[in-house]
Amino acid sequence: MHDAYIVQGGQPFKGEVMLSGAKNVALKVIIASLLFDGSVELNNIPQINDVDELIGLIRSHGIKVSYKHHRLTIDNNNFTQTEIGMLEAAKIRVSFMLFAPLLIRFGRATIPNPGGCRLGARPIDRQVDMMKAFGVDINYDSSSGYYRSTLKSRRPKGTAYRFFKPTHTGTELALMFAALADGESRIDNCAHEPEIDDLVAFLNQAGAKIKGSQGSFDITGVSSLVMNQPFTISNDRNEAPTFAAFAIASKGDIFIKGISAHSISTFINELKKSGGGIEETTSGIRFYYKGQLKASNLITRPHPGFMTDWQGPWAVLMTQANGVSTIHETVFENRFGYVSELKKLGAQIEYYEPKVDEPESIYQFNIADRDIDCASQAIRIIGGTDLHGGVLNVTDLRAGASLLIAASCASGETVINGASVIDRGYENIDKKLLSLGAKIKKVQNL
């Protein structure tokens, strides 16, 4: 890595912080904008590396983009290319979702296997199967690493489709195809995270006809999408548990603005059970340390369960709790990349394989196909550990944030290599932490 965060731990973080726009909304609405006729204006777009990479990708395909002060305007009148390069796709996983605008606009698309954080196999077979239901002929060329596809008719065909297991990106991609399909579509067993609601609101504001709830959507295809007014995306609810963990791990007190308790209710409920300080208001939520935390046992699940993105920060909190805690990961098969790094700081964590009677119904991936190099699906955390400084390496975005939290409550200095990975999803996190009293600096070219 050529960049790092250097953190001096031991200071309680105190103050206020405003959440940035949601990364997982921003990327999807930018891609959905490429389906529109005319220009599109988006507000509250976070200034993060993933957004910068996506903007660079679409600019390289002739699209005019203006991005300033969290306002993004897109004019895709010169969008002409139908192939995404290997290097472009390697930088950002959502490049795979460009199948929707490319196929709908041009009838063909060539896109390589997607990049982004490697949290296990993250198979895209569900997305491929769904696209076939909309009339897409798609094949994988193993010799080149590209998916090559064509649309069999001028527009996607309306279809009835049920996902074998809910998929966040698969649901969003299906909504894009269905919005401009010829005829009506019914999509069942969808993911139903709040971020998907933002995408639906965005498409409907432009003329789409999407109705749905409880994981099912009914869509009547329209001939075009046109923006009549700017669209403002929601704040990033994944940032809130991160800063909550910063507050409590550092024995501090942080008021997080721009978040409702409803959007992170599962996290709040677990934190209350463990003894974390919480005060809910109409403008945000105060998280504060009010004494020794209690151990917990939790299982990650799709929304509305405890999110997989929250388990890294939670693991750090449990290193400071009283007793032995467990975390069972069921969404991804390789989400514990931070564990070996936390051990370098003195954390006492061990892997174990939980007994599961019906693994196919519990795990969101195919447990039988799990990579032999993947560790077990659960960890056991011995609480009450005094963490110390060390030199760490970031394995993925959320793991990087978790290491920052650990460094904040560790004694001495910690160097976290891979600052740019954290910056993929957290806007100016070092500046926000400095405003809360942290001793942190970013360095380049280590």
TrEMBL record:
This is UDP-N-acetylglucosamine 1-carboxyvinyltransferase. The lineage of its organism: Bacteria, Candidatus Roizmaniibacteriota. Pfam families: EPSP_synthase (PF00275). PANTHER family: UDP-N-ACETYLGLUCOSAMINE 1-CARBOXYVINYLTRANSFERASE. Pathway: Cell wall biogenesis; peptidoglycan biosynthesis. Belongs to the EPSP synthase family. MurA subfamily. It is found in: Cytoplasm. Residues 7-433 form the Enolpyruvate transferase domain. GO terms for molecular function: UDP-N-acetylglucosamine 1-carboxyvinyltransferase activity. It catalyses: phosphoenolpyruvate + UDP-N-acetyl-alpha-D-glucosamine = UDP-N-acetyl-3-O-(1-carboxyvinyl)-alpha-D-glucosamine + phosphate. Its main location: cytoplasm. It comes from Candidatus Roizmanbacteria bacterium RIFCSPLOWO2_02_FULL_38_10. Keywords: Cell cycle, Cell division, Cell shape, Cell wall biogenesis/degradation, Cytoplasm, Peptidoglycan synthesis, Transferase. Its EC number is 2.5.1.7. GO terms for biological process: cell division; cell wall organization; peptidoglycan biosynthetic process; regulation of cell shape; UDP-N-acetylgalactosamine biosynthetic process. It is an enzyme of class 2 (transferase). GO terms for cellular component: cytoplasm.
